[in-house]
Specification:
The chain has 251 residues and is mainly alpha-helical. The chain folds into 2 domains: 175 residues, Methane Monooxygenase Hydroxylase, Chain G, domain 1; 57 residues, no CATH class. The protein has 8 helices and 2 strands. The protein has a two-stranded antiparallel sheet. Strand 1 and strand 2 form a beta hairpin. Helix 1 packs antiparallel against helix 2 and helix 1 runs parallel beside helix 3.
């Protein structure tokens, strides 16, 4: 779990512990979002020194989130169940990052509204122009934090799509590997062929087949005898080739 604490005279801070399980990343991001929201609600343009300190703290948290997400093995999966699990986990992380971004956006718009309010009431409140412009500068810092969170979110979106596609491909490979052509031939209804009229083949008509007729008969018999075995062999070859796909980074 992340370290989350609040002191009466100190800012709430957050620092992630070593995350070895990627399934815990989304929970850590939600904890960080609560810390950031608690800090941003304390910003006032009257106290610009405190506002700068809070925005710096938020920037450090955003950087820690980015490092935490990118340090995880987001492409590590070997079989269908792992691809499905990683698809769910990366979707959850993507949603957590998107929610975090929306929280930053809401606080930035609130800061801009507060700045406009103070700008209108500057003569009455006595707030200096420096304080108003500093509020705008801090909101631009927050906008850069939003861009970093969105970039991290796009990375997780790509990983999520990768795992979803690989899960579908793995399922298709397993279905192809379990396909039994010989069993399908055994279960086929052959009664309709028993009463079929004989078709005269000019290549095989007569007792003397000749070289061309002999070749034709041999090819037909060999195809009929080995078709099921060759289909199974081809499927196994496909499974062997595609069972170890490369990630987009390796391609």
């Amino acid at each position: 779990m992340a370290q989350e604490h609040m002191d009466d005279n100190a800012e709430m801070t957050w620092s992630p512990l070593d995350v070895t399980d990627i399934s815990k990343v989304a929970q850590e991001i939600r904890i960080a979002q609560r810390v950031v929201s608690a800090n941003m609600r304390r910003i006032t343009i009257d106290d610009m020194d405190g506002a700068r300190q809070i925005v710096t703290t938020v920037g450090n948290i955003v950087q820690l989130i980015h490092e935490m997400v990118m340090s995880c093995s987001i492409y590590k999966a070997d079989y269908t169940a792992e691809y499905n699990a990683m698809a769910i986990v990366t979707d959850e992380i993507q949603c957590a990052l998107w929610t975090f971004h929306q929280g930053l956006l809401d606080h930035r718009l609130r800061m801009l509204d507060l700045r406009r309010k103070y700008a209108r009431d500057r003569e009455r409140t006595g707030l200096s122009l420096e304080g108003v412009e500093s509020g705008f500068m801090l909101s631009m810092y927050i906008a850069s934090y939003e861009a970093m969170i969105l970039a991290t979110c796009d990375t997780m979106k790509a990983a999520s799509q990768w795992h979803h596609n690989m899960a579908i491909m793995s399922d298709s490979i397993n279905m192809a590997a379990s396909y039994d052509a010989a069993a399908e031939l055994d279960n086929a209804d052959l009664n309709e062929f028993e009463h079929a009229e004989d078709v005269t083949d000019p290549l095989t008509d007569g007792d003397d087949l000749g070289p061309l007729g002999t070749l034709h008969s041999h090819m037909a018999n060999s195809d009929l005898a080995s078709s099921a075995g060759e289909v199974a062999l081809n499927v196994e070859q496909v499974c062997e080739i595609t069972s170890t796909p490369k990630s987009p980074i390796d391609v």
